Amino acid sequence: MGDEDIPPPHAGRPVTVPARLDRAAAWSWRLLVIGAAVVALGVVASRLRLVLLPVGVALLLSTALVHPAHWLTRRGLRPLLATWITMLGFLGAVVGIGVAIVPPLVDEFGDLGPTLEDAADEVEGWLIDGPLGVDQATIEDARDRVQETTTNAFSSNGALVDSAVIAGEVVAGIVLTLVVAFFLVKDGDRFQRWAIGWVPEQHRDRVRQVSVAAWSTLGRYLIGAASLGFVEAVIIGVTLTLTGSSVVLPVAALTFVGAFFPFVGAVVAGVIAVLVSLVSSGPEAALVVAVVAVLVQQFDNDLLAPVIYGRALKIHPLVVILAVTTGAAIGGFLGAFLAVPLAAVLVNATIAARDDPGEVTEPSEPDEPSDATGPTGAAGPA
Q1: Burial (Cβ within 10 Å: 0-12, 13-18, ≥19) of residue 45
Q2: How many CB atoms lie within 10 A of CB 145?
Q3: 160 has which bridge partners?
Q4: What pTM, to 2 d.p., does this model score?
Q5: pLDDT per residue over 13-35, tens digit each?
Q6: What is the pLDDT of residue 160?
Q7: What is d(CA 146, CA 356) in angstroms, rounded to the nearest whole number?
Q8: C-beta atoms surrounding 347 within 10 Å
């Protein structure tokens, strides 16, 4: 018998794949499909950011404006008139606050940049001459990289974006935001009823429950971030004033804005406050500001935040950081601003979807109309 007549070892027997390898392969292709879908979604969101970002801001804004509009409606005004009064009152308040705060804020912001540069020079000198003994070339290379990254964040294909284009996008975004917010406040419940009408009847209670949880999460996030930001801004501003810092209003404003970027914004605002105090009042004052900033953050995170946010922001800090980074990559500053509430909405909507229909994730608001089912009726399902 020749070699060609010898049957192979597995002749006549089926070739079986080990169970572990089969499961690994099944998970691998599913993860690849999910990853491709996430990438595609990110690309689409990036292309549509001029629409998606204003809509996201309008959703957040309408969670606050819906309450005074409902208050006026319950007192006999028609929804259209109540919505107009609410929107005009909001715009009037924004203009009034801007007239009162913006001029001194702009004046002091002009001093913030040079102050931070002086602080960076002092820190650089300490790193070079201090116990760490860092090489000056390393420091300069790091500063160049930071400057390059900052420049690229506001550039397109290596060239600075034309200011007229930016101004046009900003104006268009503001107009679209106000228009979308107006109709969400006026007809949000109708939009939800129309959307739920497309859902099979056996799933409507669960879908309504998920929408209520998502809307309530947005409202709690906006109120919570604004409340915590105000508290932190006041405390940091008072501390800077008492320690003799010359730039107070810009740091307080940045601290307030930083509250809308949980964890990340607090760290950035705290570092800026310490650097400003270092240049204005010396190392001792900077140490005091650093201690106060840490204590305020712990107080807010451990005591105030659980009460204000409720379940609206019970997500891991790592998820928050990844959400902020992803949002910034897709939509810049506004993308980072909307990333955390979006992540919170997804988490709480998923929790609500797992609950039995009728179990509302968030407690009802007593001042909402009982027959509301949509964004203007975030209090509870109809």
Answers
A1: middle
A2: 10
A3: 155
A4: 0.66
A5: 666 777 888 788 888 888 899 88
A6: 45
A7: 50
A8: 19
